[in-house]
Amino acid sequence: MGSVKRVLVTGAGGALGRAVVSAFDDKDVVGLDHVQLDVADRDAVLQAVGAVAPDVVVHTGAWTDVDGCESDPDRAFRVNALGTRHVVEGARLTGARVVYVSTDYVFDGLASRPYVEWDVTNPLSVYGRSKLGGEHELHPADTLVRTSWVCGRHGRNFVKTILTRAREGQPLRVVDDQHGCPTFTDDLAAMIRRLAVERRPGVYHVTNQGVTTWFQLAREVVAMAGLDPEQVLPVATAELDPPRPAPRPRFSALDNAALRLGGVALLDDYHVPLERLIKELLA
Ligand SMILES: NC(=O)c1ccc[n+]([C@@H]2O[C@H](COP(=O)([O-])OP(=O)(O)OC[C@H]3O[C@@H](n4cnc5c(N)ncnc54)[C@H](OP(=O)(O)O)[C@@H]3O)[C@@H](O)[C@H]2O)c1
After folding, report:
1. Best mutation site among 38, 46, 60, 205 for ligand 1, i.e. most ligand atoms within 8 A of its Cβ?
2. Is 136 among the domain residues?
3. What is the pTM of this model?
4. Distance 239 CA to ligand 1 centre (A)
């Protein structure tokens, strides 16, 4: 334990990537953003991983535009699946381990209880299929972290969008038939760090605790900001006009079973980091 000296983070300009770089700030951490390292470029990845010579590569870089992926599957697979192959190859050549971040969208959402790490995957969207493709590139010593509904200080996300629109008094119609676990970047990054430092291989579901819908979450955001939650109205996914190109699972809560059964303390209930984030955004 504690043998991690140098860490390379891909997608370091992203919402999670930035939090992961901060979580390792007492170590020798090299964060490369999309411009500095395109994971779809094999030569560039092998060169970068060889030059940095990390013990661990935290691979957060991905094409995360779920609807965009639907209309450009080649790009989705080039970045999310093939890109992960390159990262894993680079890591093998230098003796590093990979921590890959994947998604609840690898599941079809037909379950009636939260998904455990050993449940069968069946993605509905191109994005989900391409991220699952990335999962299949990992080696047994690597770590696969599946997470969901990521929010945080950096980048665009649901909490920020709702807050902005509510403050502008815009009408808000939010889907109330998709269930999942909101997860906050600082908490997730801290657990990624722990899994890396403790050298825990295998699949881990890592989310904040608590299952909700986008509609309920939106109302909580608006209420926590001191605004009127009644301005948020529910809408069914099937009623969205225009419909969104990529199908989403209707229920994609992740049971953090591997952490729970392994005796690792789970992340906080999502209301704790949500309140913290809203205070920060309103300050
Ligand atoms: N957001 C969620 O709700 C969610 C849920 C489950 C899992 N995840 C996973 O969590 C990870 C981090 O996502 P995030 O929420 O932090 O999204 P994000 O803010 O979009 O971060 C992803 C980063 O990857 C970069 N990127 C895109 N194409 C790349 C390429 N070819 N090579 C290198 N970097 C590239 C993006 O840069 P540009 O923006 O400059 O292209 C972006 O900075 C991803 O693996 C994602 O699949 C996210």
Report:
1. 60
2. yes
3. 0.97
4. 28
Please, which residues have CB within 8 angstroms of residue 48's CB and are 6 or more apart in sequence?
Answer: 8, 32, 37, 90
Q: 42 is in which domain, residue-wise?
A: 6-155+183-209+252-268
Q: 87 in ligand 1 pocket by Cβ < 6 Å?
A: no
Tell me which H or E stretch contains 136. Answer: none
Dihedral Cα 252, 128, 155, 147, nearest 10 deg: 40
Whether 275 is in a domain gets the answer no
Beta bridge partners of 172: 232
Q: What is the position in ligand 1's atom list of the atom closest to the CA of 16?
A: 16
| 100 catalytic residue (yes or no) | no
CATH of the domain at 72: 3.40.50.720
Nearest residue (by CA) to ligand 1, atom 32, is: 38
Cα separation, 167 vs 172, in Å, equals 11
pLDDT per residue over 162-191, tens digit each? Answer: 999 999 988 899 999 999 999 999 999 999
pLDDT (tens digit per residue) in 241-266: 889 999 999 999 999 999 999 999 99
- Give me the number of domains the chain comprises: 1
